[in-house]
Amino acid sequence: MAAQQFDFGMIGLGVMGRNLLLNMADHGFKVIGFDKDNQKTTAFEAAANPGTTVKGVVALQEMVSQLAVPRKIMMLVPAGKPVDDVIESLLPLVQKGDIIIDGGNSHYTDTLRRVTYLKDKGIHFMGVGVSGGEQGARTGPSIMPGGDQEAYPHVQPMLEAIAAKVNGEPCVAHLGKGAAGHYVKMVHNGIEYAIMQIISECYDLLHRGAGLTNDELHKAFDSWNKGDLQSFLVEITADIFLQPDDKDASKRLIDVILDKAGAKGTGKWTSQDAMEIGVPIPTIDMSVTMRNISAIKEERLKANALYKNQSGKIDTTKEAFVQQVHDALYFGILMSYAQGLAMLHKASTELDMQIPLQKVVSVWRGGCIIRSTLLDLFTRIYTQNPQLENLLLHEQIAQLLADKTENTRKVAGAAIQHQYAAGCLLAALSYFDAYRSGQLPINLVQAQRDYFGAHTYQRIDQPGTFHTIWNK
């Protein structure tokens, strides 16, 4: 074995992999990274701070042979087959007791399969969600490990050292059994989709609807970020409105960006898996749908010409409407969190993941894309009541929503009346109204199902299951 024994190895020296390793090196760990691209290994070593121990190699065996036992190896490669390929290439080089970590956005079912596959070979496998983008990876991300309890203590010191800190507490914790880490990251990304979409809908209503300029939009979002909407996504939104176009300094960049979004799939997975376990997350679902609609730009232009959509000016004073939209955004963001966390609550038992929600919201307080001042409140709520099914059942949340709902309805009404697509905001409002309704019209659906398919129904006045021969 080579004389130099490294503490941690990374497969894949793209932006995220390189920055996570450099972060570890800054905290005194000896790190080694592998990438087939020699330019990436060279750039990795060149980016290291003086006095740190950093090495890049282009041969996998060279990396593995220089790692201290038990070896701790993280992969940051695209989800799917590339992860399985890397595992197969590692198997001849590692030994029982070694730890392989998938730090990418793998689907949790793949992670479960890999945990079982490698456990039979005596190798520990952990799925770890990492959020914060390239800057977060370098200076302090939010880290969501799950799975192998036996392996976690071996990587815990490193993960705690590099994670974002809030009040001195690292934004990392073991978040449950099996594939819990990747499941929590998947739901995190679903919430992220929803909040981003709601922010964009509010922007549209303020900009095209109420006529706010980019400077006025910056002022509004910047002000909100200093108050109860303080969050990473609101903060960067305020910055975006000031960014000049690098091709034409007389324009703002936001005004020349095509309204057509891409997606990597994690939002879609959140929707699919929520349906699998029967949890309603309509705001997250709608955010995925709105991205899909944005992608069919050519069809939208044809429809616009055919139907002559005329999103009109909203008859309001700017100042009053800005306050109404603030409340609607707060409302929508809270619904997005409530739905995602309700999904985690259900998955914790349904999929036997034992996810501690108080740790989840605590880990999300710093480093990650959905970090927000609201998460301090959620941490206190789940610490008091770890088994809370839904945030909307907590009195303090009810009080916060009480003075936001009326303005949310006004904004939703303005969107409908003036032909603005505000799918996420409307889905959030419908979810709220349905969730707190003691009576839904599903009794008619049950009658219809029994009429055409003898699916039976229950009654409100006596127990049991019933079927009726319906009159023609």
Q: Span from first to last CA?
A: 84 Å
**Secondary-structure element series:** EHEHEHEHEHEHEHEEHHHHHHHHHHHHH
Q: What is the general shape? A: globular
Structural class: alpha/beta
Name of the CATH homologous superfamily of the largest domain: N-(1-d-carboxylethyl)-l-norvaline Dehydrogenase, domain 2
Mean pLDDT: 95
Would you kindly provide a written description of the structure presented here, covering whatever features stand out?
- Helix content is 53%, strand content 8%.
- It has 472 residues and is α/β, with parallel strands linked by helices.
- The chain has three domains: 8-174, 3-Layer(aba) Sandwich (Rossmann fold); 185-435, N-(1-d-carboxylethyl)-l-norvaline Dehydrogenase, domain 2; 441-472, Single alpha-helices involved in coiled-coils or other helix-helix interfaces, CATH 1.20.5.320.
- The strands form two sheets. Strands 3-2-1-4-5-6-7 form a seven-stranded mixed sheet, sandwiched between helices. Strands 8-9 form a two-stranded antiparallel sheet.
- Helix 1 (15-26) packs parallel to helix 6 and helix 14 packs across helix 18.
